[in-house]
Specification:
alpha+beta; 10 helices; DNA binding; Crypto/Photolyase_FAD-like_sf; Cryptochrome/DNA_photolyase_1; deoxyribodipyrimidine photo-lyase activity
Length: 262
């Protein structure tokens, strides 16, 4: 936050870390984070900023399928240079405790001139696992209210209506999917694309990885996964999907069935 306030900018990983902490552990509405960043970013774009915060807040059309744990800062800042620049109170801590000052023995804190709760705050959340579990439970409770509606399909995916009136489902994190009766939805690793003729075509793991365009190295969707007339040489997967949607198809979400924590 100090970097954002001082410079009007924040590195991408720091933006995702802040979003994860606010929405996944503090259970604060993503709108609050979006408003703060919109107000402070010099490169603020209302569409991009709102969409990315909504995705982090478990309600976007391309929800983040990972969570950056706030107590694993060393993976994002292994040298400690970032912390020492923007949190100078911790400058004299040994690297071992730089990202986890609450674990430092009293004598180490004293040598670094730190007193938790006085010149450096105590942790606002001590048990991250419990906090995240409570946040997930609250989200599922809310989602059960719409589980048996047009906005949720039988596999627990969110449903959206496209501008042309067609309906499509979008990526929904597996731990947040509920069936129509409000129970956890079974995991699925398949991808399907329904053509405008009503057919359904699927491909497995090999197809999901796509094919390499020998000319430019572009990853493309397999031709058999798209309705006729939509597979175009040189187009990216997103471009081909968008072409398919415009021609009346309905593209189901790409499901990586991944909920990793980094």
């Amino acid at each position: 936050m100090r970097e954002l306030w001082s410079t009007g900018w924040s590195q991408q990983n720091m933006r995702m870390l802040a979003a994860s902490f606010l929405t996944e552990f503090c259970n604060i509405d993503w709108v609050q984070g979006a408003r703060w960043y919109e107000d402070n970013l010099v490169d603020a774009d209302i569409a991009v900023n709102s969409m990315m915060w909504q995705n982090a807040g478990r309600s976007g059309i391309d929800q983040l399928n990972f969570v950056i744990s706030p107590d694993n800062g060393q993976s994002q800042d292994p040298s400690g240079d970032y912390v020492r620049r923007w949190v100078p109170e911790l400058t004299d801590l040994p690297d071992k405790f730089l990202h986890r000052p609450w674990e430092a023995p009293p004598e180490v804190l004293s040598a670094a001139g730190l007193q938790l709760g006085s010149n450096y705050p105590e942790r606002c959340i001590e048990n991250l696992s419990e906090a995240r579990a409570a946040c997930t439970a609250a989200t599922l409770e809310m989602r059960r209210l719409v589980a048996d509606t047009q906005w949720n399909d039988k596999d627990g995916y969110d449903i959206i209506v496209l501008p042309d009136g067609h309906v499509s489902k979008v990526f929904t994190r597996k731990d947040l999917r509920l069936t129509k009766d409000g129970k956890p939805a079974p995991a699925t690793r398949s991808i399907s694309a329904d053509s405008d003729r009503g057919g359904s075509r699927r491909w497995g793991n090999a197809g999901r990885r796509g094919q390499k365009d020998q000319a430019g190295g572009t990853t493309k969707l397999p031709r058999h996964a798209l309705p006729e007339g939509t597979s175009q040489p040189g187009c990216s997967a997103k471009e081909q999907l968008w072409t398919m949607l415009k021609q009346g198809g309905s593209a189901n979400a790409i499901d990586l069935d991944s909920d990793s924590e980094v």
